[in-house]
Write a structure and sequence with these properties.
The structure is a single chain. By secondary structure, the chain is of the alpha+beta class. The protein has helices at 2-7, 16-22, 27-31, 44-51, 98-111, 157-161, 168-182, 202-210, 239-263, 269-274, 279-296, 310-319, and strands at 13-15, 57-62, 75-80, 90-96, 120-125, 145-150, 154-156, 186-187, 196-199, 222-225, 232-233. α9 (239-263) packs antiparallel against α12 (310-319) and α11 (279-296) packs parallel to α12 (310-319). The longest helix is centred in the last third of the chain and has 25 residues, at 239-263. The two termini are 30 Å apart.
Length: 321
């Protein structure tokens, strides 16, 4: 799978038909076999109608990126040339069951009061009579719902940690402040490096995703928490349960960063293009983050899913076995 991801191209968003054709051997991973896709995603007319857009609408599907993971549910970006989709140019959408979508909607609204999360923009569910027209109809699938969120121009925390042009001190300070704010009132419960988005200038974020390194403006414009479907508020736990879930958040986060950085240790030209920072410098930056986490949290190392790598050895040496 690694080599497939490395050869898969630098653009994490592809036009929907191109994405479905290019990754058809992994089709079940793109579209999620449990749900049908709302708004027949190849229909610009349907999207324009539901999103009240008068412009030309382009539909993109999230596709594999270097060192990245496949989404467990379909995710799409809708872009209009007139910036009129919910009064913006692009929106992000997620497909899931109605119950899961409603949970995420409520979590976004609750969390928005305390820390940056994507703005909730809309909720849609297929009409029964539309089912026969859907491209992704499969036997046994449920009628899906669609959550529409603000699109965040960003890179993951993992990528930011190994991007030498981003100020490491500012990055660590911003991320730790965001984590502390979140853990005052809720636990994410699925916290991975990809769920902490480092908001950058839109062109810079796009360039980094495509492997272009010229003229990057790498000032951090904020830190966002995404994919909050699993999040629970502190008042839903006992005190001990809340502490345990916060500790689990941190364990999952460090495990995901370590796995990501370990994947990128391969000496392959395309990795050097996207991630030119030498491994020693990457680890130094990661060390600054680990020190800050250790100072602020009760850290417990995971003994599962950690590959044998320089990054894993560094993690263990830094935090203790």
């Amino acid at each position: 799978m690694l080599l497939h991801l490395l050869k898969g191209g630098s653009n994490i968003w592809l036009p929907i038909n191109e994405a479905l054709d290019k990754y058809k051997q992994y089709r079940h991973l793109i579209t999620a076999s449990n749900y049908i896709t709302p708004f027949n995603v190849v229909s610009e007319t349907d999207v324009k109608h539901n999103f009240n857009s008068n412009g030309k609408v382009s539909i993109f599907s999230k596709t594999p990126s270097i060192g990245g993971n496949w989404a467990t549910h379909p995710s799409f970006k809708y872009s209009s040339d007139q910036n009129d989709i919910f009064e913006t140019g692009s929106v992000f959408s997620k497909v899931s069951s109605k119950d899961n979508i409603m949970i995420e909607k409520e979590n976004l609204i609750k969390m928005k009061e305390h820390l940056p999360v994507p703005e909730f923009l809309g909720f849609f569910k297929n009409r029964e009579e539309d089912i026969s027209e859907l491209l992704e109809m499969k036997s046994g699938c449920k009628i899906a719902a669609l959550l529409v969120e603000e699109f965040i121009d960003s890179i993951s925390l993992g990528q930011a940690l190994i991007e030498e042009r981003i100020n490491a001190d500012a990055l660590v300070e911003n991320v730790l402040e965001t984590l502390k704010k979140m853990h005052k009132f809720c636990a994410h419960r699925d916290l991975k490096h990809s769920h902490i988005r480092i908001n950058l200038d839109p062109k810079t974020a796009e360039n980094l995703a495509r492997g272009y390194r010229e003229e990057l403006d790498v000032e951090i414009e904020g830190v966002f928490i995404i994919d909050v479907e699993t999040t629970k508020m502190g008042n839903e736990f006992s005190n001990e349960e809340f502490k345990l879930n916060i500790k689990t958040d941190i364990t999952q986060l460090l495990t995901s960063i370590t796995g990501y950085m370990s994947t990128l240790e391969y000496d392959i030209e395309v990795i050097k293009k996207f991630f030119p920072t030498p491994i020693a410098q990457r680890l130094k930056r990661y060390g600054a983050f680990l020190d800050a986490v250790k100072a602020g949290y009760d850290v417990e190392l995971s003994h599962r899913f950690l590959p044998e790598s320089k990054t894993t050895k560094f993690l263990i040496d830094r935090l203790g076995s």
